[in-house]
Amino acid sequence: MSDLPLVSIVTPSFNQAYYLEKTICSVLEQNYPNLEYIIVDGGSTDGSVEIIKQYSDRIAWWVSEPDCGQTEAINKGFQHANGKIYAWLNSDDTYQPGAIREAVEFLQRNPQVVLVYGDAHYIDEKGMVIGDFPAAQTDLHRLRRGYVHIPQQASFFTAAGWKAVAPLDQSFYFAMDYDLWVRLAQIGPIVYHPRLWANFRLHQDAKTIAADERCWPEMLRVHYRDGGSRVAPIVWKSWLRKMAAPYIRWKRKKLFKQEKG
């Protein structure tokens, strides 16, 4: 184990007891022996704390207290991290077996890389696969044009990279990961490794479903902050996304009705 770098995984959570244990188990059952797991709960009242306590002997640090949301929780978790490689896994998502080991092996072979990301399935409330995240290689230039293609659940970055650009901007509710990817891409290579590493759960209470209209305005904040043009592709994409929003919401509602039926 001495030659394996410590990996720190942070799970932010608030009232996600229905999914939380599956998330925890997907981390703790990885075939990676040098793992530091941190859970930051926002003061849940739905039984989440009882679930966390069941695994407390395998959790490096955890807390349950009111906070200002997911972004603050992630920052708080990494303040307690000691690893060489970082990632966060939201409390309704899961890792695929072997994901951490494969990510570590890639970063060890490619020490210049600051962020590596793989593929992710979309799964429903019951854990059934309903699609695939459109992961693809991107870079700083393409990120700033709005071509993200990075599944956060399947992303791992170096502690050195994090410390160079941290913390997450707590004024972001939705696009804090996009902001982080942009800042990491400014200091080193980010690489897509086409291996299935995670499951991205879609359900009616998920931010991706309930509040996705907040994503593109926040991405535009990053764009303009970094001197972006008002006629750049990311601006066009935001307007197209806004016009398509009614159809997307209808399609998602139809999907959830089919799942429940």
Describe this structure in words.
This protein is an alpha/beta fold. It has one domain (7-203): Spore Coat Polysaccharide Biosynthesis Protein SpsA, Chain A. It has ten helices and nine strands. Strands 1, 2, 3, 4, 5, 6, 7, 8 and 9 form a nine-stranded mixed β-sheet that branches. α9 (215-225) packs antiparallel against α10. The longest helix is centred in the last third of the chain and has 28 residues, at 233-260. 39% of the residues are buried.
Tell me how many strands there are.
Answer: 9
Query: CATH topology, which one?
Result: Spore Coat Polysaccharide Biosynthesis Protein SpsA, Chain A
Q: Give the count of helical stretches.
A: 10
Helix-and-strand structural type: alpha/beta
Percent in helix = 40-55%
Catalogue the unreliable spans: 206-211
Helix and strand string, N-terminal first?
EHEHEHEEHEEHEHHEHHH
Name some characteristics of this structure.
globular, Glyco_trans_2-like, nine-stranded mixed sheet, 261 residues, Spore Coat Polysaccharide Biosynthesis Protein SpsA, Chain A, Putative glycosyltransferase, transferase, alpha/beta, 10 helices
Summarize this, please?
Helices cover 40% and strands 20% of the residues. Strands 1, 2, 3, 4, 5, 6, 7, 8 and 9 form a nine-stranded mixed beta sheet that branches. Strand 2, helix 2 and strand 3 form a beta-alpha-beta unit.
